[in-house]
Design a protein that fits this description.
This is Ig-like domain-containing protein. Keywords: Disulfide bond, Signal. InterPro entries: Ig-like_dom, Ig-like_dom_sf, Ig-like_fold, Ig_Fc_receptor, Ig_sub, Ig_sub2. By secondary structure, this protein is mainly beta. The protein has five domains: about 80 residues, Immunoglobulin-like, CATH 2.60.40; about 90 residues, Immunoglobulins (Immunoglobulin-like, Sandwich), CATH 2.60.40; about 80 residues, Immunoglobulins (Immunoglobulin-like, Sandwich), CATH 2.60.40; about 90 residues, Immunoglobulin-like, CATH 2.60.40.10; about 150 residues, Immunoglobulins (Immunoglobulin-like), CATH 2.60.40. The protein has three helices and 44 strands. A hairpin with a 4-residue loop joins strand 22 and strand 23. It is elongated, with a radius of gyration of 59 Å.
């Protein structure tokens, strides 16, 4: 059974629960009010404060051109636009246009640009747009040069690339390079390549920046080639022998596409000290030397010096006072194909010195290093100038001799025979003359009687008395000719004997005979030295046979034959 006290206690507990519920309800309502208020404020901010978007057709202004900026705000409302610019990241924004209806503007200056929209009165503003950086090419031109100007360098050399701004004045330029590895801060106007390698080969460009947003265009490229192999110097001499009282010129060169070489000269060993500069013409790579020895050279350039490989050596010899002379044995200025001749190198006042000999010639002949050059069965290819010199065992040598000219004719000479008189009385003497070009050139003369051979219409030749070894004189007298006769001659010289062709036959006839000249070309068959057979016209052969056999012709026939001569 509930007592009063129990009922009173339950009533108090119910009253406390009701108060707590009321308090909690009020708190919940306040929280909901705050949530709804924040939501409304957020939605209001989103709707009432849009953010424009700024776009650009290109970020770089080329020379006198401009770029177009577009400020876009979402929605269909009519907006006006404010435009702003900053000149650097740290500068304040400056208004450049306010409240214009166009959402497009054109600018020709570099800088940082942004925009905002506005509408209404009083104006309602959007947020500021994103910022766009506009860069500009300046009129100055970047120029890239090589110092020294060697487009081809070699591994280990040092070279500097220099970027110059034409008309740059006192502006503090910063520089940008391609390849990117050159853009190591601080970015300077020069890039120095020390101890170049093949990886340094390639194209290089540079540009100058006046500030963050204005710069030059890229320079024209320079192509740099780094060669792996060290070049080798080449040494040449205008002569290997120093003439008496004279000198020879040595020339050192480096065959590369790059220039700038200076030259260093050595005598004796490569490791010796270079010859002093009084002897050296550095600009032309030539040196005049009057001292015998072994010479070397090499090229060098740059700072510090980069050296080429040493050249091959050249031995320079000094000439002695003795003079070399070339002589011909026999001394014939013109010889004929098939003849034999000897060229001899003589050293004037050479004494008992053991000389070695050297020949040079413009002919196709390659003479041996002997004091005599024997040419057997000469040909036209042996024609030319011949010179020689002598060299001692210690390598000192004479000057080259004066040249001697040798001319070899391909045509065998043919003598011309004349007889006197053409008419004679029985028992008279006949004089024969045999004429050869250059009669003083060692010729001996051989004399023959022409003997007809019938019925084959040939004639043979028989040596006349006393001419088997030839005569020094070019004339021969036939004593006591008793009838008509034919004669032939030829010449010969040298050992073995070289013979000319036979002359054409000539006839001498007595007063009671007639004479006929052979007018037909003759075919010569090779025979012995004393016999030669020549084909004749049949009618002439018969007449000649009759003449040699003493047969007479009638006067009318004699006159007809005489007109043939």
């Amino acid at each position: 059974m509930k007592t009063k006290s129990n009922i009173s206690s339950e009533a108090e507990e119910q009253s406390d629960v009701s108060v707590l519920d009321v308090k909690m309800g009020h708190t919940l309502l306040r929280v909901l009010e705050l949530f709804l208020l924040n939501t409304l404020l957020y939605v209001h901010a989103e709707v009432e404060n849009p953010k424009p978007r700024l776009t650009v057709d290109t970020n770089i202004i080329h020379r006198k051109n401009n770029v177009t900026l577009t400020c876009s705000v979402e929605g269909s409302a009519v907006w006006k636009y404010d435009w702003f610019k900053r000149t650097s990241d740290s500068s304040e924004a400056q208004s450049i246009r306010n409240g214009v209806p166009e959402n497009i503007t054109h600018v020709s200056e570099e800088g940082l640009y942004h925009c905002r929209g506005r509408r209404g009165d009083p104006p309602f503003y959007t947020e500021y747009s994103n910022e766009v950086a506009i860069q500009k090419y300046v009129s100055n031109k970047a120029s890239l040069t090589l110092q020294p100007n060697w487009p081809q360098i070699f591994r280990g050399e040092t070279i500097t690339l220099r970027c110059q701004i034409e008309g740059g004045g006192d502006t503090d330029w910063t520089y940008q390079w391609i390849p990117d590895r050159l853009n190591t801060p601080p970015t300077n106007s020069e890039y120095r390549i020390s101890s170049a390698t093949e990886s340094d080969s390639g194209d290089y460009w540079c540009m100058g920046r006046r500030d963050s947003y204005s710069f030059t265009e890229w320079s024209d490229p320079i192509t740099l080639t780094v060669s792996l192999n060290r070049p080798k110097a080449e040494l040449s001499a205008d002569d290997r022998d120093i003439p008496v009282g004279g000198s020879v010129t040595l020339t050192c060169s480096v065959k590369t596409s790059s220039s700038g070489w200076k030259y260093f000269w050595y005598r004796g060993e490569k490791t010796s000290e270079p010859l002093n500069t009084q002897d050296v013409l550095l600009s032309t790579g030539q040196i005049s030397v009057s001292q015998e020895g072994v010479y070397w050279c090499r090229g060098g350039r740059g700072e510090p010096d980069y050296y080429t490989e040493y050249s091959d050596s050249i031995s320079i010899n000094k000439n002695v006072v003795n003079k070399a002379v070339v002589t011909l044995q026999p001394n014939w200025s013109e010889i004929f194909s098939g003849e034999t001749i000897t060229l001899r190198c003589e050293i004037k006042n050479g004494g008992d010195t053991e000389w070695e000999y050297e020949w040079i010639t413009t002919s196709s002949e390659k003479p041996s290093n002997q004091n005599e050059v024997s040419i057997r069965s000469a040909s036209v290819s042996h024609s030319g100038d011949y010179r020689c010199k002598g060299r001692k065992k210690n390598k000192q040598s004479t000057d080259w001799s004066d040249p001697i000219k040798l001319t070899v004719s391909d045509e065998k000479p043919k003598p011309v025979l004349t007889v006197s008189p053409l008419w004679l009385n029985a028992g008279d003497s006949v004089t024969l003359n045999c004429e050869v070009e250059h009669p003083s050139a060692g010729w001996r003369f051989y004399w023959y009687k022409a003997v007809p051979k019938l019925p084959n219409n040939f004639y043979s030749v028989e040596l006349l008395p006393g001419s088997s070894n030839g005569t020094e004189q070019d004339s021969y007298i036939v004593d006591g000719q008793t009838g008509t006769a034919g004669y032939v001659c030829r010449a010969g010289r040298g050992d073995p004997v070289y013979y000319t062709q036979y002359s054409k036959p000539k006839l001498v006839w007595s007063g009671d005979s007639c004479f006929i000249r052979q007018s037909q070309s003759e075919r010569t068959n090779q025979g012995s030295d004393t016999n030669q057979v020549v084909n004749q016209n049949e009618a002439q052969g018969e007449v000649y046979s009759n003449l040699l056999n003493g047969k007479q012709h009638e006067p009318e026939e004699r006159r007809a034959l005489f007109t043939v001569i």
